[in-house]
Amino acid sequence: MVRTRLHVVLAAVVVALLAGCGGGGEPAGGAAPPEARALNVFAAASLTDAFTALKAKFETDHPGVEVRLNFAGSSDLAQQIVNGAPADVFAAANESTMKTVTDAGQAAGGPTLFATNVLQIVTPPGNPKGVASFADLARPDVTVVVCAPQVPCGSATEKIERATGVTLSPVSEESDVKSVLGKVSTGNADAGLVYVTDVRSAGGSVEGVEFPEADTAVNNYPITALTGGREPELARSFVELVTGEFGKKTLEDAGFGTP
């Protein structure tokens, strides 16, 4: 009988010790796991590769945080933000598009310039039509696709047309550079105008043709945290990552210029 009671007491002590050591499934010390949080980043389509890499870095540095990337044409994203879309950070492909957001009082502080980009002619592999210059895009035997004028890459195209006196007659005007790239890579157009970074990311599916007039329309990329965001501290941290040394190297590796 004494032994039985002793066994019962010892068993109770063991159970108590296990419970105190977190045997109920919680981390040691009773600390709760970090609460899942989401950071909504709206970014120009041309930033897809670079920001996907920065998302991975940010999530590693901030356990429990999910970075949700929304890529599209900058003008579309700006309108979404002004209309109340849940965004914490906005990175645009030019300053005039960012102005839509700042004029609406949606920018938390002044936007920071973090990258530059220029246009490049893109053709299918082998450049079947022999496009060698911006003027060649106006040839009647060349079907061309460009970005719509309200999109930063379309605005840059118009600047180059004015600077060169060459007027293009595109078969379509797309909502972002990725759509232009898609039309050319699938053989639905002989040539298009996209950013240098897009040609690089496409690899061997397209061919790039540099032209000197591209320097007349350099795009400056601004970024800002937004006043309507739910995660202001995380938003500031993401902006710091993009504008810091790691972000600079990531952007340069993708083909962007940096300040």
TrEMBL record:
Transmembrane segments: none annotated. It comes from Pseudonocardia adelaidensis. Pfam families: SBP_bac_11. Keywords: Metal-binding, Signal. Belongs to the bacterial solute-binding protein ModA family. Residues 1-21 form the signal peptide. This is Molybdate ABC transporter substrate-binding protein. The gene is modA. The keyword Signal applies. InterPro entries: ModA (IPR005950), ModA/WtpA (IPR050682).
